[in-house]
Amino acid sequence: MPSSKPKVQIRFEDEDFRYLEDWAKSEFIPITQLCRQLILKAAEQKRREEEKSA
After folding, report:
1. Residues of 25-50 as b/e, b for ≥16 C-beta within 10 angstroms?
2. Is the pLDDT reported for residue 4 higher than 90?
3. N or C, fewer C-beta in 10 Å, the chain?
4. Inter-axis angle of helices 14-27 and 31-53, nearest 10
5. What is the pLDDT of residues 11-50, one digit of tens each?
6. What is the three-class DSSP state of 10?
7. pTM of the model
8. What is the spatial distance between Cα 7 and Cα 43, in angstroms, rounded to a whole number?
9. CA gap 35, 17 in Å, rounded
């Protein structure tokens, strides 16, 4: 059953995609999961920075 969660589409340069793909393989996860983890980690860091400056 398809998810009803919001989604985004990202385009990468070939070299960047290959790097992410290799990284994901080394972690034994799909590249989409790796990208999701990286984005959420960056968002959390940004949130913390904003809270400090508020």
Report:
1. eeeeeebeebbeeeeeeeeeeeeeee
2. yes
3. N
4. 100
5. 999 999 999 999 999 999 999 999 999 999 999 999 999 9
6. coil
7. 0.84
8. 16
9. 10
